[in-house]
Amino acid sequence: MGNLVNLSKYVLISLLFICANNMVHVMAQWPKGGSTKYYDFKVQMLKVNKLCDTRNIVTINQKYPGPVVYAQEDDRVIVKLTNETPYNATIHWHGVRQILSCWSDGPSYITQCPVQSGQTFTYEFTLVKQKGTLFWHAHFSWLRATVYGALIIYPKTGVPYPFKYPYEEHTIILGEYWNQDLVQLEKNVTASGGIAPNADAYTINGHPGPNYNCSANDVYKINVVPGKTYMLRLIGALLNMESFFSIANHKLTIVEADGEYTKPFTTDRVMLGPGHTLNVLVTADQKIGKYSMAMGPYMSAQNAPFQNITSIAYFQYLGASPNSVPLPASLLPKFNDNLAVKTVMDGLKSLEIGNVPKEIDTNLFFTIGLNVNKCGSKTPKQNCQGVNGGVMAASMNNNSFIRPNISILQDYYDHISGRYTEDFPGTPLKFYDFVNGAPNSSPNNTGSTNGTRTKVLEYGSRVQLILQDTGTVTTENHPIHLHGYSFYVVGYGSGNYNPQTANFNLVDPPYMNTIGVPVGGWAAIRFVADNPGVWFMHCHLEIHLTWGLAVTLIVKNGQGPLETLPHPPADMPRC
């Protein structure tokens, strides 16, 4: 009898794991306790036919988008990365807090040297108190344009969602596609001193949709049952653009942002910048038909070129004719509709009362924006194609970050000095009307300093950071991402930050890892610096990162092993 009981347990557990792997109505009842999930990632070339063109793109396991990493809260995740391409590669686990695992965070030359062709490296981290929709992407050059995938973390066994269980879940990744070699493209843009070319297409789960040439059948589709409610896991994996998303005639109810539950908020459309994730509920409550799911551009910078062709996917009811004409998603806002962005941000509130730091002992103020440096080239037509014959740059506190050719984390751990400095200013060197009175005689008074400058934080510091957009060159919405942490977005507004008039929410602010600093405005974030290591903070518009809109934060060790950065893994790549 005992053997029969054990056999029954074994069969039950096996069935549950089969369910988990096939994602049958999503959350499987896995065995209790944090388990370990193993994944094998091979960086490989894949031949694709898109937009009337055939080319090889860099992928993981020859999948575009890449494989989904599934886990549960508190699971340990181990991913062996083998590089079978001629390019360098690293993977960043976007939104994972990497508690005591900074070595596995992934940004090249910040926490690790790249994994070179033919090499392997194993990423290991624990999803401590984390659940929801995150994602992973390459963090070398511009490879993340094609190297990305979902990271889906389910609640612990027996813990329900805080909303009615959806009939099905679907992951929707918004991206951009170029008919070019992305590593070479970054080199060309950098050498030119000018701006990046527009993407050739926007994509939904890798598909451009019928608005693009040769793409009538290159369309993503979800089949839905009338009357049922679906959860869509929306992921912003765009490279250099931000994007609106909507479904014709359907409402979206946001229930999670950046892997944290929110109070339900219903809207007609959402905006996702690179690095943002949102979970939305959609009910198939319209007449039977085929409805367009659309992504289109949000461009807040002045006079900036962008791809203006909308990418379309289908939200198709069972019973609809396959040849029926899709209802257009007429709700996409105008490309520069800042109010539509603000309306969604205003609706984001944490589901539960947050543990927001009330007492602050470290006040930081970072300006963010673009620059134009003077031309120093003997071939200005080739190398100085920025505004007024200058060279484009971007900065925080007017310092353009230069990524070194070593790992800052390794140098910090080994106490090697000289290849980075610890003198990043905690406030601007000069205060003025950042939005309306910024210098704008490019390139004469719009230059930036540059260097591999870091800001050091004491362990346990309660940090408030003001992020202030500037009007040099142009104001713009900047999606700022902080590695290794989530933070409370306690306030934001237009114009220059004024502590006397700023309204803060210290009760239920959203807890995020990427914040779109409003165009011509500011955002205030708070966090406790309780995770030792070297953490990159940067604009997630890749061209701005290339230009230097970044800083590295060093959080010092605290007391004892649970507050101390462990030693590096044995297989850490060498530069």
TrEMBL record:
Residues 1-28 form the signal peptide. Binds 4 Cu cations per monomer. Residues 43-156, 168-319, 442-558 form the Plastocyanin-like domain. One of its GO terms (cellular component) is apoplast. Its EC number is 1.10.3.2. The keyword DNA repair does not apply. Coiled coil: none annotated. SUPFAM superfamilies: Cupredoxins. GO terms for biological process: lignin catabolic process. Belongs to the multicopper oxidase family. Lignin degradation and detoxification of lignin-derived products. This is Laccase. It comes from Artemisia annua (Sweet wormwood).
